[in-house]
Amino acid sequence: MKRFIVVLISLLIIAVLGGLVVGIFFLITSSSEEISGKGAVATGTEECTKVAVEILQNGGSAVDSAITATLCQGVTVPQSSGLGGGFIAQVYIKETGVIETLNSREVAPLAATKDMYSDGGSSREGGLAIAVPGELKGLFELHKKYGKLPWKEVVEPVIKVAESGYKVANYMSSIFEDRGDKIKNYPGLKEVFVDPLTGELYKEGELIKNPKLANTLKVIAEEGADAIYGNGSLAQNIVKEIQDEGGIITMEDLLTFEPKWGKPVISKLFNEDTIYSFPLPGSGSIVAFILNVLQGFNFQDNTLEYHNENKLFYHRLVEALKFAFGKRTKLGDEMSAEVLSTLDELQSIEHAEYIRSLIDDEKTFNDYEHYGANYSVIEDHGTSHISILAPNGDAVAITTTINSIFGSYVVSESTGMIYNNEMNDFSIPTAVSDGLLPAPGNYIAPKKSPMSSMSPTIIVNDNKEVTMVVGGAGGILIMPSVTQFIIYNLYLQQSAQQAIELERLHHQLQPMRIQYEEALDSEIVKFLESKGHVMYPQSPTITGFAAIVAITRRNGKLDAAVDPRRGGHFEIF
């Protein structure tokens, strides 16, 4: 009997230790060290990363996991994402080597016209600023094509997050501090974000519950996309509420909304990896163009330390950004002759070589015409991003948005959804800026989406293995930030966390200055000033630099990182 007890205790000890070893192997949380994991999830909050990982552990696909994470960020990152907005996504299937894009961006209502704001109507706040939301319809479309688990099982974990609550992150807390009075002036926002016991906005680390949004998610779990885009329980109230706020969205807008499947922009990198970028109305073609221009300088042949000493790399980077933003002024969500011609240029290696030849290593230029800007710069706003890599090698990069922080500031009384203000991203014909006319390709038209800086990106090697899943949150700052992350990580061999934390430069051509992080080496700042650049320091605050969310693979080992500029969470397993 004693021998049996000893054996039993020994087996229990072995089981416990074995479980610990398996647990340690299975889940590595928020460490930037490269490990031999098989999958990874990176999102904007710990709650969303955990439920997305659980979906994968339960046999869900990369798309299932991405859907759960996206719905979750509508709960935990409501200032930037949610059912009242839209998204663009790339899906990679390793078995076939196929990658597809899905555009489920918000679109202008059927009653919209290009002159609808010329008489002073608000495109920033209120009902007239709301474009037709696309998030739920797009997520349901993704699930129909690539989902493995039942739809209800993908939604249920998010219901629990909304019911049990999520902790106020540092970034959200800083938004509350910055916009507290305004939040309190909007009843829908006040209901969610103000503690009824104290009358004050919730503080960092405190728990926010959203029972109204939880009830909406319960309906969506049962009815799917029809809840909003069919004859479901939510649609009629949504239309009435928006119209009561002065909006022009109708039932026909919801019933006729359709996400669009497409193909990515494809380009080869210096190491023969293939980069897949999101096409219009996203800005993946701009990211690919910048890389094609810079690759010809062969900067990958030297180390980051060399470039910090030599400094010319930074001047060339800024010049490439300026040419890229010049091209972007001609783009839009329509296939006009000018848009098609610009796209051809962006995807041409020969044209990238020509642009490279225009970069003067001795000086910069301060006129828009030199950089090809015929129109004013199209400036968009906040977003959130999710990167997923499943153990089977499939990947999803998805960037979501309600546009500005808290979108239109209109909250659905019946559903708890925060509605977007995406109409503000269109160009207004009467809005002349610095002598530049607005971009005709970005004028308002029914069922059209405005230009976006969102750039969800997937990079794949010759063995069909994903080597990077990356995207960013931060409006017009996304493209330069994603590009610099790719350069620092892939070209200059920095870890994911190192590549994210390196100080960034931003130049969007208008205004004619370099926006740079205050911690940037002062010698680099002086060098750029010597080339004629106007330098504008900025701290990485709420309105500062974009937040990168990334998963990478090098020599068979996974790495992941989230951006300390906003925070976030990842797990490698």
From TrEMBL:
Top-level lineage group: Eukaryota
Source organism of this protein record: Clunio marinus
Residues given in the record as L-glutamate binding sites: R105, T401, I402, N403, D425, S452, S453, G475
Secretion signal, residue range per the UniProt entry: none
Residues at the catalytic site: T383
GO MF terms held by the record: glutathione hydrolase activity
Alphabetical UniProt keywords: Hemostasis impairing toxin, Membrane, Platelet aggregation activating toxin, Toxin, Transmembrane, Transmembrane helix
Gene Ontology terms: biological process: glutathione catabolic process
Pfam families membership: G_glu_transpept (PF01019)
Regions crossing the membrane: 7-28
Protein known as: CLUMA_CG018173, isoform A
GO cellular component: plasma membrane
